[in-house]
Amino acid sequence: MRGTLSDRTGAALLMAPLLLFLVLAYAWPFLGVVKWSFTLPTPGLGQYHALLTDDLVQSVFIRTLRIAAIVTVVSVTAAYAITVVWVRGSPVQRVLAEFCILVPFWISVLTRAFGWVALLSNRGLINTWLQSIGFISEPLTLVRNEFGVIVGMSHFLIPFAVFPLASAMRSLDERVLLAARGLGSSRMRTFWTVFVPMTRSGIIGSALITFVFSLGFFVTPAILGGGRSVMIAELIYLRIFQSPDWGLGAAISVVLVVFVGALMALVFRYVKPKQLV
Amino acid sequence: MQQPGRAAEIKANGIGKSFGSFRALDNLTLDIGRGEFLTLLGPSGSGKTTFLMILAGFVQPSEGKLFSDGVDITNRPAEQRAAGMVFQGYALFPHMSVEQNIAFPLKVRKKSAAEIKSRVGEMIERVGLKGHEKKLPAQLSGGQQQRVALARALVFEPGVLLLDEPFSALDKSLRGQMQAEMKRLHQETGTTFVFVTHDQSEALALSSRVAIFNHGKLLQVGRPDEVYDRPANRFVAEFLGEINMLPVKGVRPADNGATGLCEDRAVNMRCKAEAIKGDAILAIRPEDMSIAPEASANQNGIAATAVASTYLGAATKLDLTTRQGAKVTVSVPNEVAAVALSKGNSVWLTWPAEKGFLLPDGGQ
């Protein structure tokens, strides 16, 4: 019999430092944030009421959901293509794909955001090149707007989206694909009617990770949005460090955490957590 | 393989396949007749599965040509050959219901919804899966999954059905049931069946012909009784079932066969011995030998001592050692075995001249 009492006790002991760390560094301070949201500046539900009526807060919420949704679609689609090459390509393709997936992890999020500014700004590489070949006369606005934010965030999140997809594709039974071809199905048809549906759990896991990460993004939208495309995390920062309106910032944080929690619970009702990684 | 509803005739001409330096299949030439049930039999790594994969179009041969109804299909991709195929482990589509799995090859062929419905319904009935139409493969037993795989491979009326060890995951009683069912499906559809197995009794029971493979070579093709009674070499003889090997000295042609000395006694053999001169091996199946209290003039016989017995129910398997140390196994009636063992000493091991066949000494 596996998982005897002593095994489980051992596992619990090994997990304990992590749990303790999460409680001390995350759960406990967050309870403080929850308290602020109900007590600052005056006790009551005032901040939650403000949150529901404030146009700025609502527009930022909607923008955040929209950007997160677009980034999720872009990242998962791109990651799917990369993962197919990584898992099923020729040996050379696999090495190249692996390189492309791993290298971004070595470069800080800040460096990458500024890299995109250098590429996308009015006097950046892309605009000057397009102007020099006479394709455009006026520079395109590629950054300090939602487009720049989506590009930067997708670029950051694609490698994270790869891993759940890779695990789904690796566990797929090769013979099922052979069977489809043997029954007369073209490669394209086999891909869409057999391969993609069979990697469904990977797609869900990948989309969940990307979407949840996107909701809380701070650095990339702050730099590439240039204050014109503010997302939720930046709004919280502004409310706490600049307004200062700690109560509202805390209430937005609580709503964000509850929303993410509800989303995870919903997904886990349909997919087992271990299918996602 | 191209006209649906009609059994295909396949010709393999000098097919070879190398994976790097490994020779998986060597110079294979084989004709598969219209509507026949051919079994490819051999141990693992013998090349039988590689040949099946070449027939399906999943593996490209390194050399040689493949013809279906006289048309060269060597370079035709698998999806255009459309041989029905049943995989080891079934390879059902896990996200599709029983019905959708069986409908898949028809949908690919853009059949009308009405035709798909009627043919899928008919196939479900034929393989006995009524009431399970909406279930997913994971909700079915092994035998039921097997039926779905068969139905899916036969529903589009392929010219040939290829089966890769389809029963290896089933328990023994289910195996027998599925074998009978497959024989019935073969008769009903009239399609050419090519079946891969490493189980010799399955091969003998099911096929119209058996092709025996070893180390990438096709050793012999023939009807089950031909390959069992007249194996081309020692490997085939031993692979098809238990067999006794007795050394025979001074083999020379004689009236209706050959004669020689076995354990210093003259033995007669009805089998041909043109290629064999001098020393040889006489191979005899255990069921063709019997035990007698003493030598008789009209049967071959040598002296042996019973050393062990295994009770098999209907008969007893008796292990004996001859005077010169050869080990022999005989299948005898239970009471004969009891007598032979109780005597504790010498008995006569006898066999008729018609039984057994000669193999070159020590050779393959």
How would you characterize the overall build of this protein?
The complex is a heterodimer of chains A (277) and B (364). Chain A has two domains: 39 residues; 231 residues, MetI-like fold (Orthogonal Bundle), CATH 1.10.3720.10. With 277 residues, chain A is an all-alpha fold. Chain A is globular, with a radius of gyration of 23 Å. The model of chain A has no long low-confidence stretch (mean pLDDT 89). In chain A, helix 5 crosses helix 7. In chain B, the strands form four sheets. Chain B has a six-stranded mixed sheet, sandwiched between helices. The mean pLDDT of chain B is 88. Chain B is 27% helix and 35% strand. Chain B is an alpha+beta fold and 364 residues long. Chains A and B meet through helix 8 and helix 9 of A and helix 2 and helix 3 of B.
In CATH terms, what is the fold-level topology of the largest domain in chain A? MetI-like fold
Report the helical percentage of chain A. Answer: over 70%
The largest contact between protein chains, plus residue counts on each side, is: A-B, 19 and 26 residues
Model regions low in confidence, pLDDT < 50 over at least 5 residues of chain B: none
Structural class of chain B: alpha+beta
Question: How many structural domains does the protein architecture of chain A include?
Answer: 2
**Cα end-to-end separation of chain A:** 26 Å
Q: Kindly, what is the distance between the CA atoms of the first and last residues of chain B, rounded to a whole number of angstroms?
A: 36 Å
| Structure annotation, total helices of chain A | 13
What's the shape of chain A? globular
In short:
The complex is a heterodimer of chains A (277) and B (364). Chain A has 277 residues and is an all-alpha fold. Chain A contains 13 helices and no strands.
Summarize this structure as a short list of keywords or feature phrases:
heterodimer; A: 277 residues; MetI-like fold; 2 domains; 13 helices; globular; B: alpha+beta; 6-stranded mixed sheet
